[in-house]
From TrEMBL, chains A, B, C, D:
Protein name: Ergothioneine biosynthesis protein EgtB
Lineage, broadest ranks: Bacteria, Pseudomonadati, Bacteroidota, Flavobacteriia, Flavobacteriales
UniProt-listed Pfam families: FGE-sulfatase
UniProt-listed NCBIfam families: egtB_TIGR03440 (TIGR03440)
Species per Swiss-Prot/TrEMBL record: Flavobacterium rhizophilum
InterPro entries: CTDL_fold, EgtB, Sulfatase_Mod_Factor_Kinase, SUMF_dom, SUMF_sf
Gene3D superfamilies, per the entry: paralog of FGE (formylglycine-generating enzyme)
Domain (Sulfatase-modifying factor enzyme-like) ranges: 174-303
Amino acid sequence: MNITEIYNHVRKRTEEICSVLNTEDYVPQPVNFVSPPKWHLAHSSWFFEEFLLKKYLPDYKIYDDDFCFLFNSYYNTVGNRTFRAERGHITRPTVAQVYDYRNYIDIHMQLLLQLKDPQVHELLELGINHEQQHQELLLTDIKYILGCNPIFPVYDVNIDWENQQNSDSGFFAFPEGVYEVGHNGDGFSFDNEHGRHKVYLEEFEISQNLITNLEYLEFIEAGGYSNFNYWLDEGWAWINENEVKAPLYWHKIDGEWHMFTMAGIQKINPEALVTHISFYEAAAFAEWKGMRLPTEFEWEAASFKLDWGKRWEWTNSAYLAYPNFKKAKGAIGEYNGKFMINQMVLRGASCATAKHHSRSTYRNFFHPNERWQFTGIRLAKK
Amino acid sequence: MNITEIYNHVRKRTEEICSVLNTEDYVPQPVNFVSPPKWHLAHSSWFFEEFLLKKYLPDYKIYDDDFCFLFNSYYNTVGNRTFRAERGHITRPTVAQVYDYRNYIDIHMQLLLQLKDPQVHELLELGINHEQQHQELLLTDIKYILGCNPIFPVYDVNIDWENQQNSDSGFFAFPEGVYEVGHNGDGFSFDNEHGRHKVYLEEFEISQNLITNLEYLEFIEAGGYSNFNYWLDEGWAWINENEVKAPLYWHKIDGEWHMFTMAGIQKINPEALVTHISFYEAAAFAEWKGMRLPTEFEWEAASFKLDWGKRWEWTNSAYLAYPNFKKAKGAIGEYNGKFMINQMVLRGASCATAKHHSRSTYRNFFHPNERWQFTGIRLAKK
Amino acid sequence: MNITEIYNHVRKRTEEICSVLNTEDYVPQPVNFVSPPKWHLAHSSWFFEEFLLKKYLPDYKIYDDDFCFLFNSYYNTVGNRTFRAERGHITRPTVAQVYDYRNYIDIHMQLLLQLKDPQVHELLELGINHEQQHQELLLTDIKYILGCNPIFPVYDVNIDWENQQNSDSGFFAFPEGVYEVGHNGDGFSFDNEHGRHKVYLEEFEISQNLITNLEYLEFIEAGGYSNFNYWLDEGWAWINENEVKAPLYWHKIDGEWHMFTMAGIQKINPEALVTHISFYEAAAFAEWKGMRLPTEFEWEAASFKLDWGKRWEWTNSAYLAYPNFKKAKGAIGEYNGKFMINQMVLRGASCATAKHHSRSTYRNFFHPNERWQFTGIRLAKK
Amino acid sequence: MNITEIYNHVRKRTEEICSVLNTEDYVPQPVNFVSPPKWHLAHSSWFFEEFLLKKYLPDYKIYDDDFCFLFNSYYNTVGNRTFRAERGHITRPTVAQVYDYRNYIDIHMQLLLQLKDPQVHELLELGINHEQQHQELLLTDIKYILGCNPIFPVYDVNIDWENQQNSDSGFFAFPEGVYEVGHNGDGFSFDNEHGRHKVYLEEFEISQNLITNLEYLEFIEAGGYSNFNYWLDEGWAWINENEVKAPLYWHKIDGEWHMFTMAGIQKINPEALVTHISFYEAAAFAEWKGMRLPTEFEWEAASFKLDWGKRWEWTNSAYLAYPNFKKAKGAIGEYNGKFMINQMVLRGASCATAKHHSRSTYRNFFHPNERWQFTGIRLAKK
């Protein structure tokens, strides 16, 4: 596919994700970290308008001035943003108007793409990858919104993500030595994975399989959530304040564990990979097992051996700048760098990640208590 | 109109109120005290189902079990209720399904009304008055939802409520003595206005006119919001914590005061009656004027002389039980009595009140900081 | 006793209350509504300095400018006040310095009292009554501070307040009619009990005895704290949010109810009058009994028949202005009026009230959730 | 000094730190992260009782069972702990009783030390180092408590810590390559600095001097606190929510910057090293300078060249486990490992650190918003 085809394909995929929603489903923001589907649709379009059309398409007329501040996310450089926590109270523009906005952007993007302006390429790739990131958030935010509803609506009965299983087992061993990590420059990549550099790793072993629901149930039944010895101090406070006793979306119904899935409420499948796990839970599980989580560099060094793409895998690495990290100038510089505090790196990809979006150097990151993504656990040991 | 016609008329009016809404507008709950329009539509129908159809219509089949707990409000007797603060996150049932529910209830209510069961009459009147109360809340909640939107959507350009003016002026004087207050038994009334009883009032004077925007602006410009001497201690804390500097919906745009109205954003009309005032503000204004708010009994004694129906008028009476107050048995007993703490009585009616719904003995009540109703100020003095 | 003797007697009594404290006990403010004993000692002295010595004693030299803002309470007129919530973090001036301040004030008050300035009399009486109010708060705040300590320190083994019992039983009946309430002008009284005025009361009956621990235990054992039918809506929310299951200071130890008293931890005495009850609990108890709390006017009309002085008795009257209520000019005007919102009136006096301080027209007031005073329950019925 | 002399010396030093306090100063806990001096005195004694005397001194009699749960800190293994936020409300045991407890522990420790039990040595060293850590916290907590007081009490006029200056300037350059970091096993060290291991560092330069007040004032005056471009996203939220506009303890008085010091309030000394800086501020300052903070490994590799010991220096490394990190068994295992989340590493030592306590491999750690320690800024660049 050429870049125009990729653009069109990705844009269409975003709308496909929303095709089974009712208008009402596009509106709410049940918690701060979830955004209304309507907002994702508009914001990913705003990104192309703000960073491409306004600058590179001659005589481009902004669709609507109001959209600029309504659908900006965190780009302080661009202007006053709407308070993030209030996104769910904004009923206008309507969903229909947002789709009209998308259409308007797409029509003008076709014009821009015909100009074949070489300056545009890098930002275009960023916009496409940005939209793919929002596709994953759309899916996990829709799951969260539906999961808030006591009547547990189904998103799609044909999606079987929560039942994915391992295809491998056992541990791989890696020797001590200098390894290279980080992106080497070919193909698209985010600034946070530049530049390629050397790290020194001690000898380590990394598991070929992810933890299953069965293994996680053993942890629960062994009293994992009530023994402070397994927990980081802040993790222990977190489970107690929030009365966490199981992964997100798990419900005990008539004495049996169930899970809310994209296909509705289901009994826990013991063979399936556990998911919707916070870093705190992943670390406590590893402690209980007498092992540990891999670092992001161990993971990357081992990645060529791993089957991955089912769950985002928590690492024991904090999300920090690589040596020689450079922020881009202007608003694009706000993309990644300013989030480099109090977050942990996840590696791999999940069932909800857009195809061909991730890679072995990709650094995803969330706060240690966040678990509405399709996260999972891979263990390491020395 | 007979009771069936009244029922049909009131039910139709509720839907008229929503006729200009988009689907998205039915969903959010921006603050705890506001409910989504969808919820009002369903809840007022649920009331007829729960208290009339289930008990008095032979072979009635409940529309949907889920609706019972989704659209119950605070009737603890009836079953587990949804948490009030989460109403805005429930996207299903959809708006269309809620209208279908209304229709189902109305069809069965026609059947019930044809039975002419005399037992039904009292609960039917209560249900109709309950729906009228929710009509007013629908209007004020819709205004709140639209007013949260930085682009200030219009509800109806033909509504001119915020520009209503006084038709009278001056003070009426009333002599000291025993007066009778409370409802005397003819026509529908709520339990909180029973039973009629004597009160002893000192000599008092009550104003024939309500306070205007012009008078309120004088208070603002005289530093009313920055001089603690005018304020109750909790009122002073409230304006400081919330940075309150003017009535709700007032915005200073380019140095000039504007107000968000049902017809959109407008410049303040100095002749119009001030509205969206908390009890704290009403009491501070009165203190600044060297007067006071009337008690609810002074108001009721004077009511035959007053032109009212434009603004709910704050009184200096706490919402408490009348002598001989009796709670009804069962869930209906939860209607009013359990709210008799920390709220102040408002008398009269407002531009948003359903016609023929209020009366001179009617007791409305809100917390002293609440001001999203069409409230106003009438002064009294000795 | 002449006024100088009364002054000296009251000032000495304040220090007696603190005589068994350790220096450490004078410092903490465990919750916002409790003040450190050190603060009470200084603040009651500051009152005499601010309102009497500075104005009426020629050539009076202020003890220390810092004390003016450290020990002001809520008198906005006088200057910047310390934030109330921070009182427990202020370690200097020390306790010894505060006693030195008291001594300095007392020496200068002797000089002022010798002048026999008639202007001084009214403020002097207010200062003495103010100090008596703080004596009661000192006792209840000390109890609260000691009660926070998991090792339950004893204040005074000889105090037997929590074991006081009823001396009467049965109900008195009063006929319908006009009654006079409020203070008539002889002797000291607070502005909130002026002026004497007529009220019309329906026929009522009021109990001669207060509720005992035994009766209250019956309410607990009958599931009183888990049946919403007995509770005001905000009371129900309050007990659930705070996990309230019994009066303040009750602890279940090895399956048996105990109570922290001024004399340490003791088993519940069934004959003793229940105390440390919120308005919410008093109202729920009355509802469970099929009765109600008296209004403050019923209480006052009946007071000549009642034995009282053991517990502050919650009434079902909100704390609001009497007809003809006038605020004094200046800072003294802040004494009572500005608290007339969201509080309920208590009548009588408690075991901790200074002798001769209360009277039948006295209006005490607290928020409906507050219960660290020695409060109790008297029932009424029609 | 032999180990007994060291023990006695360190214990005496703790009491010297408190020698100028009044009894009242020992009591408050103004914020969660500060502990009352009384608590530090007791807790550091409890450590010796719990981990040494109870286990290794024959026939040892516990001083008081209550002290075990009152003065435990976060050692969940040992038993129920007091809630950390309530430490400031516990007035008993008194300060005198706490000193008596210290004395009792010291007497029994002499007995234990005479036994020369080799098993004891490691825990004894840990207890001494633990007490030294609390000496530094005592000093910074005392400063915080005094700094809360609007009258700014002096701790010691002879302490000149806040006026310390640089003795070097310029940058050192280090070449790319493998470096060794971590403790190598000689002398006491904490588990978090084990074991010595290789890291690969890119070429870097590190400053010989720390940032001064003058340089930091330039940042303030250049609008550093109002330009989001310099800040991490959570840092930007933190300064806005807390209205942070300068380092902790800075006050603008009559238009001039002052600082609360151990010796009282003083004008800012431009030559002195800036201190009481959060990680957020350090990172923003570095961004503004176009440089960055060093990683903890760069710092350690360069440490033999650096003059340090005046300010704890924020690094851009998260506090995480080293390869081969092993938790000790039992309660001692809770010492460090469970805090390895959401904290950043500081290296070096400060003016308030006990002599000979720190070393080049020492890893101190605090949350990125914490700044009541004597923290400072050292820059690095590539």
